[in-house]
Design goal:
It is built from eleven helices and nine strands. It is of the alpha/beta class. It has one domain: NAD(P)-binding Rossmann-like Domain (Rossmann fold). The structure holds NADP nicotinamide-adenine-dinucleotide phosphate.
Protein backbone atom coordinates (compact mmCIF):
# COMPACT_ATOMS: atom_id res chain seq x y z
CA UNK A 1 0.00 0.00 0.00
CA UNK A 2 1.41 3.46 -0.84
CA UNK A 3 2.57 5.81 1.91
CA UNK A 4 -0.03 8.53 1.88
CA UNK A 5 1.35 10.56 4.79
CA UNK A 6 4.67 12.29 4.80
CA UNK A 7 6.31 10.43 7.69
CA UNK A 8 9.08 12.94 8.32
CA UNK A 9 9.42 16.67 7.94
CA UNK A 10 12.09 16.21 5.26
CA UNK A 11 9.80 13.89 3.31
CA UNK A 12 7.05 16.49 3.53
CA UNK A 13 9.39 19.24 2.32
CA UNK A 14 10.18 17.13 -0.72
CA UNK A 15 6.54 17.08 -1.84
CA UNK A 16 4.24 19.68 -3.23
CA UNK A 17 0.90 20.40 -1.54
CA UNK A 18 -0.97 17.79 -3.58
CA UNK A 19 -3.82 15.64 -2.35
CA UNK A 20 -1.24 12.99 -1.40
CA UNK A 21 0.30 15.33 1.17
CA UNK A 22 -3.12 16.58 2.31
CA UNK A 23 -4.83 13.37 3.34
CA UNK A 24 -8.52 13.58 4.09
CA UNK A 25 -8.78 17.12 2.76
CA UNK A 26 -12.08 16.34 1.07
CA UNK A 27 -10.68 15.48 -2.36
CA UNK A 28 -10.60 11.69 -1.88
CA UNK A 29 -12.61 9.16 0.10
CA UNK A 30 -12.78 10.02 3.81
CA UNK A 31 -9.89 8.62 5.84
CA UNK A 32 -10.32 7.34 9.36
CA UNK A 33 -9.04 8.75 12.63
CA UNK A 34 -9.27 7.79 16.28
CA UNK A 35 -9.29 10.74 18.68
CA UNK A 36 -9.07 10.19 22.44
CA UNK A 37 -10.01 12.92 24.90
CA UNK A 38 -12.64 13.90 22.32
CA UNK A 39 -15.38 14.66 24.86
CA UNK A 40 -13.72 17.94 25.91
CA UNK A 41 -11.14 20.64 25.23
CA UNK A 42 -8.33 19.90 22.79
CA UNK A 43 -9.61 16.48 21.69
CA UNK A 44 -13.07 17.89 20.90
CA UNK A 45 -11.49 20.76 18.93
CA UNK A 46 -9.34 18.25 16.99
CA UNK A 47 -12.50 16.25 16.19
CA UNK A 48 -14.18 19.40 14.84
CA UNK A 49 -11.06 20.30 12.83
CA UNK A 50 -10.87 16.83 11.29
CA UNK A 51 -14.61 16.95 10.52
CA UNK A 52 -13.95 20.16 8.57
CA UNK A 53 -11.50 18.07 6.49
CA UNK A 54 -14.05 15.27 5.98
CA UNK A 55 -12.60 12.49 8.12
CA UNK A 56 -14.27 9.34 9.34
CA UNK A 57 -13.97 9.61 13.11
CA UNK A 58 -14.05 7.32 16.11
CA UNK A 59 -14.24 9.51 19.21
CA UNK A 60 -13.35 8.42 22.73
CA UNK A 61 -13.85 9.98 26.14
CA UNK A 62 -15.21 8.81 29.47
CA UNK A 63 -18.28 10.96 29.93
CA UNK A 64 -21.01 9.52 27.70
CA UNK A 65 -23.15 12.67 27.63
CA UNK A 66 -20.31 15.02 26.73
CA UNK A 67 -18.95 12.58 24.16
CA UNK A 68 -22.40 12.14 22.57
CA UNK A 69 -22.78 15.94 22.33
CA UNK A 70 -19.42 16.34 20.55
CA UNK A 71 -20.20 13.39 18.26
CA UNK A 72 -23.57 14.89 17.32
CA UNK A 73 -21.98 18.28 16.61
CA UNK A 74 -19.26 16.73 14.47
CA UNK A 75 -21.76 14.49 12.63
CA UNK A 76 -23.87 17.54 11.77
CA UNK A 77 -20.72 19.30 10.50
CA UNK A 78 -19.87 16.30 8.31
CA UNK A 79 -23.30 15.80 6.81
CA UNK A 80 -23.51 19.49 5.91
CA UNK A 81 -20.58 19.03 3.51
CA UNK A 82 -20.88 19.29 -0.29
CA UNK A 83 -24.02 17.34 -1.30
CA UNK A 84 -23.40 14.37 -3.59
CA UNK A 85 -19.81 13.77 -2.35
CA UNK A 86 -18.91 11.01 0.03
CA UNK A 87 -18.73 12.51 3.47
CA UNK A 88 -17.09 11.31 6.66
CA UNK A 89 -18.84 10.10 9.78
CA UNK A 90 -18.41 10.17 13.53
CA UNK A 91 -19.07 7.46 16.06
CA UNK A 92 -18.61 7.59 19.84
CA UNK A 93 -16.91 4.88 21.85
CA UNK A 94 -16.96 5.87 25.52
CA UNK A 95 -14.35 4.09 27.65
CA UNK A 96 -12.06 4.81 30.57
CA UNK A 97 -8.63 4.14 29.10
CA UNK A 98 -7.15 3.47 32.52
CA UNK A 99 -9.71 0.77 33.35
CA UNK A 100 -8.81 -2.85 32.63
CA UNK A 101 -10.02 -3.60 29.11
CA UNK A 102 -10.76 0.08 28.33
CA UNK A 103 -7.97 0.61 25.80
CA UNK A 104 -8.18 -2.88 24.25
CA UNK A 105 -11.96 -2.61 23.75
CA UNK A 106 -11.50 0.77 22.06
CA UNK A 107 -8.73 -0.62 19.83
CA UNK A 108 -10.86 -3.65 18.87
CA UNK A 109 -13.82 -1.40 18.09
CA UNK A 110 -11.70 0.85 15.85
CA UNK A 111 -10.10 -2.03 13.96
CA UNK A 112 -13.46 -3.72 13.48
CA UNK A 113 -15.27 -0.57 12.45
CA UNK A 114 -12.78 1.33 10.27
CA UNK A 115 -9.65 -0.85 10.13
CA UNK A 116 -6.19 0.53 10.90
CA UNK A 117 -6.75 4.27 11.30
CA UNK A 118 -4.81 6.69 9.13
CA UNK A 119 -4.54 8.92 12.19
CA UNK A 120 -4.49 8.39 15.94
CA UNK A 121 -4.65 11.52 18.09
CA UNK A 122 -4.04 10.73 21.77
CA UNK A 123 -5.35 13.70 23.72
CA UNK A 124 -6.89 12.04 26.82
CA UNK A 125 -5.27 13.32 29.98
CA UNK A 126 -5.75 14.79 33.42
CA UNK A 127 -3.88 17.26 35.61
CA UNK A 128 -2.94 17.43 39.27
CA UNK A 129 -1.36 20.44 40.97
CA UNK A 130 0.18 20.80 44.40
CA UNK A 131 3.30 19.89 46.33
CA UNK A 132 4.69 16.48 45.44
CA UNK A 133 5.41 15.86 49.14
CA UNK A 134 1.68 15.88 49.88
CA UNK A 135 0.47 14.10 46.72
CA UNK A 136 -1.54 11.01 47.63
CA UNK A 137 -0.34 7.69 46.24
CA UNK A 138 -3.65 7.18 44.35
CA UNK A 139 -3.28 10.56 42.65
CA UNK A 140 0.26 9.70 41.53
CA UNK A 141 -1.00 6.46 40.07
CA UNK A 142 -4.02 8.11 38.44
CA UNK A 143 -1.94 10.79 36.71
CA UNK A 144 0.68 8.32 35.44
CA UNK A 145 -2.05 5.91 34.32
CA UNK A 146 -4.09 8.53 32.43
CA UNK A 147 -1.26 10.69 31.04
CA UNK A 148 1.31 8.03 30.19
CA UNK A 149 0.36 4.36 30.56
CA UNK A 150 -3.07 4.55 28.86
CA UNK A 151 -1.50 6.19 25.80
CA UNK A 152 1.38 3.68 25.66
CA UNK A 153 -1.01 0.73 25.83
CA UNK A 154 -3.39 2.14 23.23
CA UNK A 155 -0.57 2.96 20.83
CA UNK A 156 0.89 -0.51 21.43
CA UNK A 157 -2.41 -2.01 20.23
CA UNK A 158 -2.66 0.23 17.17
CA UNK A 159 0.94 0.22 15.91
CA UNK A 160 1.08 -3.30 14.39
CA UNK A 161 -2.04 -2.85 12.18
CA UNK A 162 -1.01 0.69 11.24
CA UNK A 163 2.51 -0.49 10.35
CA UNK A 164 1.07 -3.37 8.37
CA UNK A 165 -1.10 -0.90 6.44
CA UNK A 166 2.16 0.98 5.79
CA UNK A 167 0.71 4.42 6.33
CA UNK A 168 -0.56 6.67 9.08
CA UNK A 169 0.33 9.13 11.80
CA UNK A 170 0.25 9.03 15.56
CA UNK A 171 -0.18 12.40 17.26
CA UNK A 172 0.65 12.50 20.96
CA UNK A 173 -0.52 15.51 22.95
CA UNK A 174 2.23 16.27 25.45
CA UNK A 175 2.77 19.44 27.46
CA UNK A 176 5.43 22.07 27.95
CA UNK A 177 5.46 20.81 31.55
CA UNK A 178 7.12 17.68 30.16
CA UNK A 179 9.79 19.71 28.36
CA UNK A 180 10.63 22.10 31.22
CA UNK A 181 9.34 20.62 34.48
CA UNK A 182 6.76 22.88 36.08
CA UNK A 183 6.67 23.74 39.78
CA UNK A 184 3.70 22.15 41.55
CA UNK A 185 3.17 19.66 38.71
CA UNK A 186 5.96 17.16 39.37
CA UNK A 187 4.15 13.96 38.42
CA UNK A 188 2.24 15.53 35.53
CA UNK A 189 5.59 16.90 34.23
CA UNK A 190 7.19 13.46 34.58
CA UNK A 191 4.33 11.73 32.75
CA UNK A 192 4.41 14.26 29.90
CA UNK A 193 8.22 14.02 29.68
CA UNK A 194 7.63 10.29 29.25
CA UNK A 195 5.29 11.01 26.34
CA UNK A 196 7.99 13.15 24.71
CA UNK A 197 10.68 10.49 25.05
CA UNK A 198 8.23 7.86 23.84
CA UNK A 199 7.39 9.96 20.76
CA UNK A 200 11.09 10.28 19.86
CA UNK A 201 11.86 6.60 20.37
CA UNK A 202 8.75 5.38 18.55
CA UNK A 203 9.48 7.67 15.62
CA UNK A 204 12.86 5.97 15.10
CA UNK A 205 11.24 2.56 15.32
CA UNK A 206 8.48 3.36 12.81
CA UNK A 207 10.67 5.33 10.41
CA UNK A 208 10.62 2.65 7.73
CA UNK A 209 7.07 1.45 8.44
CA UNK A 210 5.35 4.45 6.86
CA UNK A 211 3.87 5.59 10.16
CA UNK A 212 4.83 9.06 11.42
CA UNK A 213 4.83 10.28 15.00
CA UNK A 214 4.06 13.86 16.00
CA UNK A 215 4.61 15.26 19.48
CA UNK A 216 2.40 18.30 20.07
CA UNK A 217 3.54 20.42 23.01
CA UNK A 218 1.02 23.00 24.16
CA UNK A 219 1.56 25.56 26.90
CA UNK A 220 -1.59 26.64 28.72
CA UNK A 221 -4.80 26.02 26.79
CA UNK A 222 -8.21 27.41 27.63
CA UNK A 223 -10.14 24.20 28.42
CA UNK A 224 -11.88 22.67 31.47
CA UNK A 225 -8.51 21.01 32.36
CA UNK A 226 -7.70 23.45 35.18
CA UNK A 227 -11.20 23.40 36.72
CA UNK A 228 -11.11 19.65 36.70
CA UNK A 229 -7.81 19.38 38.47
CA UNK A 230 -9.24 21.74 41.09
CA UNK A 231 -6.48 24.37 40.87
CA UNK A 232 -6.95 27.30 38.47
CA UNK A 233 -4.24 28.45 36.08
CA UNK A 234 -2.44 31.25 37.91
CA UNK A 235 0.57 32.20 35.80
CA UNK A 236 0.76 35.34 33.72
CA UNK A 237 2.80 33.53 31.03
CA UNK A 238 2.27 31.67 28.83
CA UNK A 239 -1.21 33.09 28.31
CA UNK A 240 -3.76 30.35 27.59
CA UNK A 241 -4.41 29.81 23.88
CA UNK A 242 -7.68 28.49 22.46
CA UNK A 243 -8.15 24.78 21.88
CA UNK A 244 -8.94 25.64 18.24
CA UNK A 245 -5.40 26.97 17.92
CA UNK A 246 -4.03 23.65 19.15
CA UNK A 247 -6.36 21.77 16.78
CA UNK A 248 -5.12 23.88 13.86
CA UNK A 249 -1.54 23.05 14.88
CA UNK A 250 -2.40 19.34 15.00
CA UNK A 251 -3.95 19.45 11.54
CA UNK A 252 -1.04 21.45 10.14
CA UNK A 253 1.40 18.91 11.61
CA UNK A 254 -0.55 16.00 10.09
CA UNK A 255 -0.69 17.69 6.71
CA UNK A 256 3.01 18.50 6.70
CA UNK A 257 4.29 15.40 8.50
CA UNK A 258 5.85 17.39 11.34
CA UNK A 259 7.65 15.60 14.17
CA UNK A 260 7.29 18.21 16.90
CA UNK A 261 5.09 21.25 17.34
CA UNK A 262 4.97 23.79 20.16
CA UNK A 263 1.78 25.80 20.66
CA UNK A 264 2.38 28.72 20.78
CA UNK A 265 5.58 28.41 18.75
CA UNK A 266 7.68 30.71 20.97
CA UNK A 267 7.55 28.06 23.72
CA UNK A 268 10.33 26.18 21.97
CA UNK A 269 12.72 28.98 23.03
CA UNK A 270 12.87 28.17 26.77
CA UNK A 271 13.23 24.51 25.84
CA UNK A 272 16.18 25.31 23.58
CA UNK A 273 17.71 27.56 26.22
CA UNK A 274 17.39 24.78 28.79
CA UNK A 275 19.29 22.50 26.39
CA UNK A 276 22.03 25.00 25.52
CA UNK A 277 22.52 26.78 28.87
CA UNK A 278 20.93 24.59 31.54
CA UNK A 279 22.45 26.34 34.57
CA UNK A 280 21.36 29.79 33.38
CA UNK A 281 17.93 28.44 32.49
CA UNK A 282 17.50 26.97 35.97
CA UNK A 283 18.50 30.24 37.62
CA UNK A 284 15.98 32.20 35.53
CA UNK A 285 13.26 29.59 35.96
CA UNK A 286 13.74 29.58 39.73
CA UNK A 287 13.40 33.36 39.75
CA UNK A 288 10.56 33.85 37.24
CA UNK A 289 9.11 30.35 36.76
N1 LIG B 1 -5.37 22.58 28.96
C1 LIG B 1 -4.07 22.79 29.02
O1 LIG B 1 -3.60 23.87 29.47
C2 LIG B 1 -3.11 21.74 28.51
C3 LIG B 1 -1.78 22.14 28.30
C4 LIG B 1 -0.86 21.21 27.83
C5 LIG B 1 -1.28 19.91 27.56
N2 LIG B 1 -2.58 19.55 27.79
C6 LIG B 1 -2.94 18.17 27.52
O2 LIG B 1 -3.94 18.16 26.52
C7 LIG B 1 -4.73 16.99 26.66
C8 LIG B 1 -6.19 17.38 26.63
O3 LIG B 1 -6.46 18.19 27.75
P1 LIG B 1 -7.61 19.29 27.72
O4 LIG B 1 -6.98 20.58 28.06
O5 LIG B 1 -8.41 19.16 26.50
O6 LIG B 1 -8.42 18.83 29.02
P2 LIG B 1 -9.95 18.46 29.21
O7 LIG B 1 -10.82 19.48 28.57
O8 LIG B 1 -10.10 18.21 30.66
O9 LIG B 1 -10.11 17.09 28.39
C9 LIG B 1 -9.50 15.93 28.83
C10 LIG B 1 -10.03 14.77 28.01
O10 LIG B 1 -9.35 13.57 28.40
C11 LIG B 1 -10.33 12.58 28.69
N3 LIG B 1 -9.84 11.65 29.68
C12 LIG B 1 -9.23 11.92 30.86
N4 LIG B 1 -8.94 10.80 31.50
C13 LIG B 1 -9.38 9.78 30.73
C14 LIG B 1 -9.40 8.38 30.86
N5 LIG B 1 -8.91 7.76 31.95
N6 LIG B 1 -9.93 7.62 29.86
C15 LIG B 1 -10.46 8.21 28.77
N7 LIG B 1 -10.49 9.55 28.59
C16 LIG B 1 -9.95 10.32 29.55
C17 LIG B 1 -11.54 13.37 29.19
O11 LIG B 1 -12.69 12.57 29.10
P3 LIG B 1 -14.04 12.94 29.96
O12 LIG B 1 -14.36 14.37 29.68
O13 LIG B 1 -15.05 12.05 29.37
O14 LIG B 1 -13.68 12.70 31.38
C18 LIG B 1 -11.53 14.54 28.22
O15 LIG B 1 -12.09 14.16 27.00
C19 LIG B 1 -4.29 16.32 27.96
O16 LIG B 1 -3.41 15.26 27.64
C20 LIG B 1 -3.55 17.42 28.68
O17 LIG B 1 -2.56 16.91 29.55
C21 LIG B 1 -3.51 20.44 28.24
Amino acid sequence: MPHVFPTTESAARGRSATSASRPGAGDGPPRSALVTGASSGIGAAVARRLAAENWRLVLNGRDETRLAAVTAQVSAQLSARVPGRAHGSAVAFPADLTAPGGGPSLADFVLDRVGPPALLVASAGIGWAGDFATMPREAIEEVVAADLLATLHLVRRMVPPMAEAGTGRIVLIGSVAGSLGVRGEAVYSAAKAGIGAFADALRYELKDAGVGVTHVIPGAVDTPFFDRRGVPYQRSRPRPVSCERVADAVWNAVRRGKDEVYVPGWLRLPTRMRGVAPAMYRRLAARFG
